[in-house]
Design a protein that fits this description.
The chain is 24% helix and 37% strand. The protein is of the alpha/beta class. It has a single domain, classed as Rossmann fold (3-Layer(aba) Sandwich), CATH 3.40.50.880. The protein has a 7-stranded mixed beta sheet. The protein has a 3-stranded mixed beta sheet with strand order 7-8-11. The protein is globular. The chain starts with a strand and ends with a helix. 38% of the residues are buried. The protein binds glutamine. Glutamine binds at residues 72-75, 105-106, 109, 133-134, 162-163.
């Protein structure tokens, strides 16, 4: 909705200047980090649920965003570009200011404070979790599953695990939202969300909807 405000112009007593500005509720823009990985798939789901999306490759791109999704892909590659672009420090700062960030798969690895792996990627280190890279084995061990998320009253969330990590420990304020068998696969810590799986690859919209809810808190 737009409101028009009339301001008396002192120099031209006859004329009135008109200023137009938007009022709440404003449309929110969800940034998708777009160096590599499942960018298009996240954008597609976000558009389906009515969000505006923006591909983020620079500090400038991020400025107009109200939240950020870090997609799956190769955490070493994405981590490298985070550092090269200067986004690493900017995202770390924004996270402290309650900016919602969701990491899927490689994105979850980049959000973790502790990473178990042969090669540790440059990472954001924002969530009090330990993540083990490639914990199910090679690409061939990828699988799909339905997940239960009691807190969201969801019993059948569609999820694809692709050369996925496992969250092996959760500390401090980080809270487990879902497990697959005995493995932790979805964790929330304040404004931060980490999922070891991809809902966007199997057409699942409910977790993106939940992420948009975080923008209100
Ligand atoms: N195996 C990748 C990594 O460790 C993550 C895979 C994915 O994002 N689907 O970076």
């Amino acid at each position: 909705m737009a409101i028009k405000v009339c301001i008396a112009n002192t120099q031209l007593p006859q004329a009135k200047a008109t200023v137009t500005f938007s009022t709440l509720p404003m449309k929110k823009t969800i940034g998708v980090l777009a160096f590599q990985g499942g960018v298009i798939e996240h954008k597609k789901i976000l558009s389906q649920i009515g969000a505006i999306t923006k591909e983020v490759r620079s500090i400038q791109d991020l400025e107009t965003c109200n939240a950020l999704i870090i997609p799956g892909g190769e955490s070493t590659t994405i981590g490298f570009f985070l550092q090269e672009s200067g986004l690493m420090k900017v995202i770390q700062q924004k996270a402290k200011e309650n900016f919602p960030i969701w990491g899927t798969c490689a994105g979850a690895i980049l959000l973790a404070k502790h990473i178990k792996a042969d090669i540790i990627p440059p990472h954001l280190g924002l969530m009090d979790i330990t993540v083990e890279r490639n914990a199910y084995g090679r690409q061939l061990s990828s699988f799909e599953a339905e997940l239960e998320i009691p807190e969201l009253k969801i019993k059948d969330l569609q999820a694809a695990f692709i050369r996925a990590p496992i969250i092996t420990s959760v500390l401090g304020k980080a809270k487990v939202l879902a497990k697959h068998k005995n493995d932790i696969v979805l964790v929330k810590e304040g404004n931060l969300l980490a999922s070891t799986f991809h809902p966007e690859l199997v057409g699942e919209t409910r977790l993106h909807q939940y992420f948009l809810e975080l923008l209100k808190s």
